[in-house]
Sequence to fold (992 residues):
Amino acid sequence: MIKAKNRLGLVFFPAFDWAISPTHPEREERLLYTQDQIFEEGIEDIEGIKFYNPIIAEEKDIERVHFPVPDVKSRVTQSHLISVGGAIIAFQAIMKKEVDKSFALVRPPGHHAHRVVYGDRGFCVVNVEAVMLERIRQEYDDLRVAIVDTDCHHGDGTQDIYWNDKDTLFISFHQDGRTLYPGTGFIEEFGGPAAYGYNVNIPLPPGTGEEGFLYVLDNVVIPILDEYKPDIIINSAGQDNHYTDPITNMNFTAQGYAKLNDRLNPDIAVLEGGYSIEGALPYINLGIILAMAGIDYSKVHEPDYNKEKLKQPKDITEYIKQISELVYKRWKIKDDLRLKEFKGYNYVDRERQIYYDTDGILENQVQRFKVCKKCSGVNTIDSSSDRGYHIFAITIPRDACSKCIDEGYKLYKNTSTYYSNVYLQDRVNDKYYFK
Amino acid sequence: MIVGLDMGGTNIDGVIIEDGRVVKRVKKPTNRDGLFESIWITLGELLSGYDKYKIDRINLSTTVSTNAIVESKTSPVGMIIQSGPGMPYDFLACGNENVFISGYIDHRGEVIEGFQISEIEKSIRLFKEKNIDSCAIVTKFSTRNPKFERNIKEILEKDFSPITMGHTMSGKLNFPRRVYTSYLNSAVHNTFNDFSNNIRKSLEREGIDAPIFILKADGGTMNISTAEEKPVETILSGPAASFMGINAMLPTNEDAILLDIGGTTTDIFFLADGVPLFEPLGIKIDKYNTLVRAIYSVSIGLGGDSSISIENSKIKIGPRREGIPYAFGGPKPTPTDAMIALGLIKEGNKEAAHNSMATLGTKLNITPKDMAKLILENMGDIIKDKVDELLYVINSQPVYTVKELLYGKKIEPKLINIIGGPANVLASILEKKFNLPCYFPKDYHVANAIGAALAKPTTEINMVANTSQGVLSVPELELYEKISRNYTVDKARKRAMELIKESALSLGATKDEIEAEIVEENSFNMVRGFYTTGKNIRIKAQVKPGLIHELRSDMND
Fold:
């Protein structure tokens, strides 16, 4: 029998009894054919691949990352807690050294879930990777982490959560926001005042294929990671860049995904989107599993794979080269850019309108980041939704100085009942309050 | 009147059961070079004085296939394997000649690309050059569409026999296991058929025309003609016989731990609400993972005759047996010696046992009596640790639904049933360690033969009904039938129950003894674009192992 070169932890939780609605892309059937492929290939019998069941995450885990409105119970279901729990146990298996790497094939997905949660957007309510990571940071250590989001949609939720955290580098490459939901993820979105340059977006044109994705990986992502030197690399492994995906316009392949994973060499991969459930997912997931386990994946390909047909046009290749050059240049001069952008500011505001497509909710919010010399700075969100809530949320970041901690508590105490809900997330003492 | 025979590595046990009572028992040493003769001698002695015409059935647990595999005395097999894209496949080369052919079928059962006739012609040449008669053909996803396996079999049929087709082995998805299972099935075919022909002829000669059943690793039986076609199903039936024996003598409907403590090893089994726990996919034999359905059993090197030594001030029991106990003239102290020294067993040389405990005891500065007690405690600990470890693994088997994860069945043993030599002594120790009641029968000596005798036909089917394609398939029955677009889960469930009952009847079951049930049932809406195109229904049904009838409680005298 085959032996894995890397010990791989696999959480395969298809949630066969969970759907957003019967015909929604996020329905019971989504991972059925992936399961068939995994079973038929005999992945269960590979020496060195260990299967784990999800644990059930706790409310407290959600409160480290999100401000669900009005509270966790009203917004987060057991299914979400299990999806996150699957990712947590995958990460724990690595920290306990039971395995070298992990892949959490869990659903529902999470990378569109922002800090404030009024409901479901982009099929996401809870940011799986962020909740997982903050739990591990709480249990173990303040790890330096890079999250590389390879979903076709911009990982706007993850970007929001780590906007001002330079210990969590976020890199997302995705179909250009001018052509696809959620309409964000441009190069200029570069991070908050304490982490300017640590939020890297690489918007790609529709029609990008193997060549383009691997070019971006080799020429932007990997050089940045080499310089950043993370303790852990997390891959938000969305699979909707595939040429058969029904809701996107890219030309990526199972072979390409496997190569990407192989070169990126993440410690943990977490499934995000991907809705070509028969023609793509079984092969992409197999490719990723084999790549992570260090097993030859060169024979993995789709039934209708046609290399010639999927060849990337020259103009796209050229465009991608230019974008890559620009992004990497900005990364190199990020400190200068930060000075230019924020010099002399005591507070930096970020104003946004957020649409919850799945639940049809509109939110307006202003985030305010304190510019602090000693830490990332206490920050607040003033947010209202068309469902009648107007909330105020305060976050004391993990690295907060004593002054910022005091300021956070003072703000919480003094914020008037003018708001429908007031929250305080104290990440230094791992506390969460709301009134 | 039922005759039960169990061929073990050391002994052949035979029993006659009449009206739920064991009326005769025989134990004979196994002659490894003449398995058939050993059976014949045992059967002859067993039946002397009994009316042959009254035999309703003969249930036989045999090691011929198992031995052939572990001793590498199987027939050479030519393998034709179609692996398609996916995993590397070199490791699947298990036959004496292996031809990997082109083409493939995908997970939907759609033919994506055909194989080349020239590849089959080449295989025929290669097999003939090597004088190979037995073949197996396995294609990836053949359970979803057996077309290629059938086509190739047609081509090979005039030159080769037996030919095993992968999809007939099991409806479960696992290509490597399907390859190995098919290989083994062809590899042991001649060995088993020689054996069965001998049995048939001899019985005929003796004027016995009772139906013959062969025990399977899942604790059930099949008639001998089915076994001749699927001889791989006869492997590793020994532990199943002992499992069924424990169940016959100590029936329960609870979650339970079952232990068979022998001279060399202890076999561990589990019951969930009185139903045996199975291997999730199939049993492993030699280096091969198979799809052969089997009772979950784990054997550890710990028994009454395990040799004991002191290493770094710690007691080490087993895993080896180096001979009979010291008190019987053996080389090393054993748990049996500890029991003799404590007066818990009345046989053997008590003084020798005491001396062996004294020798060990001096190394730990304790009295011989304390030494003996410590050994038994230690034995209890080893069993407890192993059982706990297994329960942890069993209770963390992957689940795939929110409901199962939140409310799924966890095995929480309520009692322990033990058989074997040291059972009565260890029962009180294990009772304390586990804090669970322990039960043991008065007489366990022919438990395996009783288990074999009372086992009844079992079977399993894996059904997929795809209303979008309009196909219902049950690979293990070679059934692929058309269904309408509005086929429902209810219809599928009914059909599965019909089919599983038919299947049990074809294995020789009688109507009133079939206990059929649906084990798993899933139905998925298939949506393409924004429209529901059909349903993908998956049902697993089984006839679970059970006893032909209960043993009368007065058998234990």
